Amino acid sequence: MKADAAPKIQAKDYKSDIKPVWCPGCGDYSVLSAITKALAEMGVAPENAAIVSGIGCSSRIPAYTTCYGFHGVHGRALPLAIGLKIARPDLTVLVAGGDGDGYSIGGNHFIHACRRNVDITYVVMDNQVYGMTKGQPSPTTEPEWVSALAPSGTGLRPFRPLGIALAAGANFIARGFSGDPKGTTKLLIEAIRHPGFSLVEILSPCVTYRPEQREWKKIVRPAPVEPTSDQGRAAKRLLTDDGFNTGILFRSDTAPYQPPVGKQSASLAAIEKEFAV
Length: 277
Hints:
The chain is of the alpha/beta class. It has one domain (about 10-275): Rossmann fold (3-Layer(aba) Sandwich), CATH 3.40.50.970. The chain is about 30% helix and about 15% strand. It is built from nine helices and eight strands. The protein has helices at about 30-40, 75-85, 100-105, 105-115, 160-170, 180-195, 215-220, 230-240, 270-275; strands at about 50-55, 70, 90-100, 120-125, 170-175, 200-205, 220, 245-250. Helix 4 (about 105-115) packs across helix 5 (about 160-170) and helix 5 (about 160-170) runs antiparallel to helix 8 (about 230-240). Residues about 1-5 have low confidence and may be disordered.
């Protein structure tokens, strides 16, 4: 008699016992679900995946999964994830963040993560506001948006992350919408499988501080063009894009950066002894 086949990994196997504390209706619930479904469909065991984050509503995701997780400091998730992937190339490494954490204090790390092209996937939940800290405008907030903390708007042009990622050397660029969980799951699978640095921007409404974003479901649509590997063509698309075209917008076959991993030269005990006071 043949031995029973190993049980198939399911999305629920990636969910921890900690319940999310996002506001009811937050798009991040759907993104968390898409991440677990993507990993399950790919058959990545929880112990073979790591999710790194910084600070913000979306950065709580590592605690809500059974994968290895690291909740870092504000804006520093990408260098942490890059170091992890270089040291442990066998792991599937994802970074979860938001538009504030990733594009403001983490902006310089974002640019150089694109340039370095290490094989990680950066999932950015963009709601165009600092939701966890009570609704300040973020780098992607439109200049005329009026709030209690910006009664006259910012008057500043919004950061264009996808265009910046293209110019800096990202290998894969896509946009999804949390209101399309199946499409988001498919995008994440494509991004994780693609070698090199993959950026997936997910429009994730903040219904508490930006209730008007509920209307996004009427505006988002699949990009009317096929993915391209031509930087010039992609640049034209991204610079004329209104921010609501979804799908894979650029993918390149540039080889990812992965230096050789050396053998351990000293035990942990020996290192601790060297630094003992």
